[in-house]
Design goal:
Elements: E1 5-9, H1 13-24, E2 31-35, H2 68-71, E3 74-78, E4 81-85, E5 90-93, E6 98-106, E7 110-112, E8 125-127, H3 131-143, E9 146-150, H4 154-165, E10 169-173, H5 181-198, E11 202-204, E12 209-213, E13 220-223, E14 228-230, E15 233-236, E16 240-242, H6 245-249, E17 254-255, E18 257-260, E19 271-273, E20 278-282, E21 287-289, H7 294-308, E22 320-325, E23 328-334, E24 341-347, E25 352-358, E26 364-370, H8 376-385, H9 391-395
Parallel strand pairs: 1-2, 1-6, 2-3, 6-19, 8-15, 9-10, 9-15, 10-11, 18-20
Antiparallel strand pairs: 4-5, 5-6, 7-16, 12-13, 13-14, 17-18, 20-21, 22-23, 23-26, 24-25, 25-26
Helix pairs in contact: 1-7
The structure holds NADP nicotinamide-adenine-dinucleotide phosphate (NAP).
């Protein structure tokens, strides 16, 4: 076995960025980046947007140019990690090889939840997680026709928008009353429902999917109320589950994800976790937070790499994500229950506004700017201040966000 390296399991955004951060932080020893796909690390946001619509070339999705890994002495190794022995400090791969580590980062990401109903094994039923998934779906979009999108979360909403933009007929099916309702609540869910309806999507909300029908390939989705939606293919986006199996086998503490402290270190010293899989004891919130979004995988590596190198490190960024659907771009900062009180500021009918979620004491929990830009910093400051705000002033777009803070409530 070769000499011990800093080993990263998972060659997605979090893994590739940790390799980069280790080098930026001055680490000169060996780095091995293990991935289970035959691809250089790539970014996922374009897979449901620009790349899916054919507007971005394949290499436009890469985290680093292909030559970067060789240039920075990062060994990209294709393989599936099947076990971790934290006493021997080894990672076992599915081909029987063992990789010795000095420090280990687990960034295996998450995998789509399968649709547990009859017919889900039919041809033409797509999931969207990998570059290969997006390429396969893009070929279906090229052929046109009618797509049934099951689940109106982020995948469902963005794929529905991309498919409409490519001129397909789209039926979007969601069991909640509104798209994106669990995260955004009913009022903002309604905003996205209107957006999709205006763009010609047939929206079926409050609907379970009973079964998928077809002879070999999908021909129709049968809803809980008996309606039958004929389609040429389907896309399932009903959430993901974090890939925690390796952490469990390694004996790490796993709850909803691999539990890490604010240095992103797991319950076993020397083993770290980042990205979709990491359930972080967040210093600002005082409880565990696991975020399944790109920005998390982009920024956590700086902290993970510093932790792996024994330098001071602390993850305390607020959750952040963005989405683009048709002409609507949005960013969301913070963490709120969709049921929290919402205050709107700006032009909702014109689709240029900021939504704020408030707690019962009128403290801002989260903000979502829609087609309004360069407001992330003041929104984050309002959240971090924990200051009670006057909802009427918050709603008044003539009052600068910076002028809204009041005395902090602790
Ligand atoms: P998601 O955002 O968690 O949404 C899944 C949606 O499917 C939820 O609305 C869920 O409703 C619904 N659902 C669950 N079971 C269903 C069923 N049997 N029939 C119909 N609807 C059902 O997950 P996703 O859209 O699959 O996305 C996968 C991951 O990629 C997520 O981690 C997401 O954050 C990430 N992603 C992020 C972005 C972005 O940041 N812009 C874009 C794409 C993907 P309930 O709430 O009732 O469970």
């Amino acid at each position: 076995m070769a000499r011990a390296a800093h080993v990263i399991v998972g060659a997605g955004m979090a893994g590739a960025k940790t390799a980069e951060a280790l080098r930026t932080e001055g680490f000169e020893g060996p780095i091995v980046l293990i991935g289970d796909e035959p691809e250089a690390p790539y970014e996922r946001p374009p897979l449901s947007k620009g790349f899916l619509r054919g507007e971005l070339p394949r290499d436009g999705t890469l985290v680093h140019p292909r030559g970067w890994y060789g240039d920075h002495a990062v060994e990209l190794r294709e393989g599936l990690a099947v076990d971790v022995d934290t006493a021997a400090r080894t990672v076992e791969l599915d081909d029987g090889a063992f990789v010795r580590y000095d420090r280990l980062l687990l960034a295996p990401g998450a995998e789509p939840r399968p649709l547990p109903i009859a017919g889900s094994e039919l041809d033409g039923v797509h999931y969207l997680r990998t570059l290969a998934d997006s390429e396969a779906l893009a070929r279906r979009l090229d052929a046109g026709g009618h797509v049934a999108v099951i689940g109106a979360g982020w995948i469902g909403a963005e794929v529905a928008a991309s498919a409409r933009q490519r001129g397909l007929d789209v039926s979007l099916i969601e069991r909640e009353r509104m798209p994106l309702e669990r995260v955004l609540g009913s009022e903002l869910g309604c905003f996205f429902a209107e957006l999709h309806r205006d763009r010609g999507v047939a929206l079926h909300t409050g609907q379970t999917v009973e079964r998928l029908e077809g002879e070999g390939a999908i021909e129709a989705v049968v809803l809980g109320d008996g309606r039958r939606i004929e389609c040429d293919f389907a896309v399932v986006g009903i959430g993901v589950r974090p890939r925690t199996a390796l952490g469990e086998r390694a004996g790490l503490t796993v709850e909803d994800g691999i539990c890490v402290d604010d240095r992103l270190e797991t319950s076993v010293p020397g083993v770290f976790a980042a990205g979709d899989v990491a359930s972080v004891l967040h210093p600002f919130y005082g409880h565990r937070v696991r975020v399944e979004h790109w920005a998390n995988a982009l920024h956590q590596p700086e902290v993970a790499a510093r932790g792996m190198l024994g330098k001071p490190a602390r993850w305390d960024r607020l959750p952040y994500f963005f989405s683009d659907q048709y002409e609507v771009g949005m960013e969301y900062t913070g963490l709120a229950d969709g049921a929290a009180r919402v205050v709107l500021r700006g032009d909702r009918p014109g689709r240029e506004f900021i939504a704020f979620w408030l707690d019962p004491e009128n403290r801002v929990l989260a903000g979502m700017n829609v087609n309004v830009w360069d407001v992330i910093d003041p929104i984050a400051e309002l959240i971090r201040s924990r200051a009670a705000v006057d909802p009427e002033r918050l709603a008044d777009a003539d009052i600068p966000l910076e002028a809204l803070g009041a005395s902090p409530v602790r």
